[in-house]
Write a structure and sequence with these properties.
Number of strands: 0
Radius of gyration: 13 Å
CATH architecture: Orthogonal Bundle
CATH superfamily: Fido-like domain
Structural class: mainly alpha
Number of helices: 5
CATH topology: Fic-like fold
Shape: globular
Strand content: under 5%
Helix content: 55-70%
Distance between the termini: 29 Å
CATH class: Mainly Alpha
Length: 98
């Protein structure tokens, strides 16, 4: 139900990017799989953006988020910022568009 409220066309408190990133963050937190939770959640967020007639995210412009490195660290830092304050999706949305 939360996600439905976040993406409603009459919602003025979240942008589409913030709403999709909230969904992505929530899916990662649920952790439904032993491996691949981030990939699954990013693919879902991209599909959601397309369903909302938006543009899919770039998620670090195609950099490898599976291997340790600065791009993965930036992604994890953005997720951790959202963990600390679930109302603030700015860092995650910025990374999603990077």
């Amino acid at each position: 139900m939360d996600a439905h409220q976040w993406v409603r066309p009459d919602s003025t408190w979240l942008t589409q990017d913030q709403a999709a990133c909230r969904d992505q963050h929530r899916l990662v937190a649920i952790h439904p799989f032993p491996n691949g939770n981030g990939r699954h959640a990013r693919a879902y967020a991209d599909a959601l953006m397309r369903a909302l007639a938006g543009v899919a995210f770039t998620w670090g412009a195609g950099h490898d988020l599976l291997r340790d490195g600065p791009d993965r660290r930036a992604y994890l830092d953005a997720l951790h910022a959202a963990d600390r304050d679930p109302e603030d999706m700015d860092a995650l949305a910025a990374f999603a568009r990077s």
